[in-house]
Automatic annotation (TrEMBL):
Entry's Gene Ontology molecular function annotations: rRNA (uridine-C5-)-methyltransferase activity
Protein name as catalogued: RNA methyltransferase TrmA
Residues engaged in binding S-adenosyl-L-methionine: 286, 315, 336, 384
Organism for this UniProt entry: Paucilactobacillus wasatchensis
Family in the record: Belongs to the class I-like SAM-binding methyltransferase superfamily. RNA M5U methyltransferase family.
SUPFAM superfamilies: Nucleic acid-binding proteins, S-adenosyl-L-methionine-dependent methyltransferases
Domain TRAM: 6-64
InterPro entries: MeTrfase_TrmA_AS (IPR030390), MeTrfase_TrmA_CS (IPR030391), NA-bd_OB-fold (IPR012340), SAM-dependent_MTases_sf (IPR029063), TRAM_dom (IPR002792), U5_MeTrfase_fam (IPR010280)
Keyword Zinc in record: no
Gene: trmA
Length: 454
């Protein structure tokens, strides 16, 4: 069927890039019809081919540049843009920071919200920052490969230098890949749903240098397991924990429920703001430790604690924000949905001799309502939800407890702006500018702190 659109697949055009979407794609308009084009920056004049057309928009691919942006930097490796590991690598870092500030500002303007956004706090060295990698293992042209999926597909692009990951993690992945090759361990095949090894996850403590390797397998049986362990520990002296995670389901969820510690400890340790943390394989732990310290420090500063307050930390993970706040507050209550993470949080409180932090397993929206029913009177509520933002019930219960402040750490400006308006309906407004902190350089992810006060 030929769509009644101004452009069609395989046609080519010239145009000027008008905008950069939140996914980092350049936007060219032909007769007001938007075409989204990777690796194209605002102000650039390009020739492009149309690769896909839908009713309301199309996708394209740059054929040639007639004029390049002053903010364009040399692309290190085409695969980083191809795979979406580093979709903004072609944009100068200073421009990435501005882009993130503007993304939040534009969403606020669109909803007529008069709130300022501060310049994004960036990194001195905006690469090799990730303390965690999760790489699929697949057979590519008959060879066991580790890498990353091509954007929008499940086609593996082999990669050895991941650019944004701790290089020690990249090196560990190569060691594991070579051992899998040596011992002929069969990689998972999505088409047939067969094979043994699905994913390799590696975490490395930024301060502790403790390394954890998680082998995610389709089958309970992992052939040559002792040989693999001996190979990893001989070549990677930082390894303190090797875990086999069995995930037999045909799913996009990375980790299964069952962990078997096959070498060393079931967890590793790291520090943040001088506090020791134990981290389980299934627990969330911020991936950019240097920026996380800046983020938490800001969030705590903005909460303006005197030491007398009761604080709630919703979506508390392993208790990182809670324990950092505990030193500045009377009592802290954390809630988190992943039971292992709450176990970690309780253990972390104990080992740091922090007695005024309390943790429960549950859905934040339900627990918030429970605390309200129990008559808890928090002075400050801190929230750090996943991308989908806050549930309306959580906002209702939070507002009903009438805290002076809600400190909102957000990883998705779209749901942040939605939730700011829901809080406004409850009498909470934003009086200080929003502070973005770049947790994910070279990518389009945007983290920020907002303070709502009554
Ligand atoms: N504040 C922590 C974790 C933030 S990530 C830190 O900075 O490390 C968000 C956390 O919310 C994750 O740990 C996730 O498991 C948890 N989560 C997701 N949905 C939830 C819900 N409905 N209720 C409670 N926790 C939830």
């Amino acid at each position: 069927m030929k769509l009644n659109t101004p452009v069609h697949k395989n046609e080519s055009f010239d145009g000027t890039v008008m905008d950069l979407t939140y996914q980092g794609m350049g936007v060219v308009k032909i007769d007001n019809f938007p075409i989204f084009i990777p690796n194209a920056l605002p102000s650039e004049e390009i020739s492009f081919g149309v690769t896909k057309v839908t009713k309301n928009f199309a996708f394209g691919r740059v054929i040639d540049w007639k004029k390049k942006s002053a903010d364009r930097v040399e692309v290190k490796n085409k695969q980083y843009t191809q795979t979406g590991i580093a979709p903004l690598q072609h944009l100068a870092y200073s421009a990435q920071l501005k882009f993130k500030q503007q993304q939040i500002a534009e969403l606020l303007q669109k909803d007529h919200l008069d709130i300022d956004v501060l310049p994004t706090i960036g990194m001195d060295k905006p690469y090799q920052y990730r303390n965690k990698a999760q790489v699929p293992v697949r057979l590519v042209r008959g060879k066991v490969e580790t890498g990353f999926y091509k954007r929008g597909s499940h086609e593996l692009v082999p990669i050895e230098d991941f650019f944004i990951q701790d290089p020690k993690i990249d090196a560990a992945i190569i060691v594991v890949r070579d051992l899998l090759r040596k011992f002929h361990i069969e990689p998972y095949d999505e088409k047939t749903n067969k094979g043994v090894i699905k994913t390799v996850m590696v975490r490395r403590g930024y301060y502790s240098h403790e390394m954890m390797i998680v082998l995610v397998t389709k089958t309970k049986k992992l052939p040559m397991v002792q040989e693999l362990i001996d190979g990893m520990t001989a070549q990677l002296p930082e390894v303190k924990s090797i875990v086999q995670n069995v995930n037999s389901a045909k799913t996009n969820v990375l980790l299964g429920e069952k962990n078997f510690t096959i070498f060393g400890k079931p967890t590793i340790d790291d520090q943040l703001l001088g506090i020791n943390f134990t981290i389980s394989p299934n627990s969330f732990y911020q991936v950019n430790p240097q920026q996380t310290e800046k983020l938490y420090q800001r969030a705590i500063e903005q909460a303006q604690l005197t030491g007398a307050e009761t604080v709630i930390d919703a979506y508390c993970g392993i208790g990182t924000i809670s324990l950092a706040v505990a030193q500045h507050a009377a009592e802290v209550y954390g809630v988190e949905i992943v039971a292992d993470a709450v176990e970690d949080a309780k253990h972390n409180a104990k080992r740091n001799k922090i007695a005024n932090a309390h943790f429960v397993v549950g859905k934040a929206e339900e627990q918030m309502a429970q605390w309200q029913e129990d008559g808890l009177e928090p002075d400050v509520i801190m929230v750090d939800p996943p991308r989908k933002g806050l549930a309306p019930e959580l906002i209702d219960a939070a507002a009903a407890m009438a805290p002076k402040k809600v400190v909102y750490v957000s990883c998705n400006p779209a749901t942040l702006v939605r939730d700011i308006q829901l809080f406004a309906a409850k009498g909470y407004t934003v009086k200080q500018p929003i502070q973005p902190v770049d947790q994910f350089p070279q990518t389009t992810h945007i983290e920020s702190i907002t303070v709502l006060s009554r």
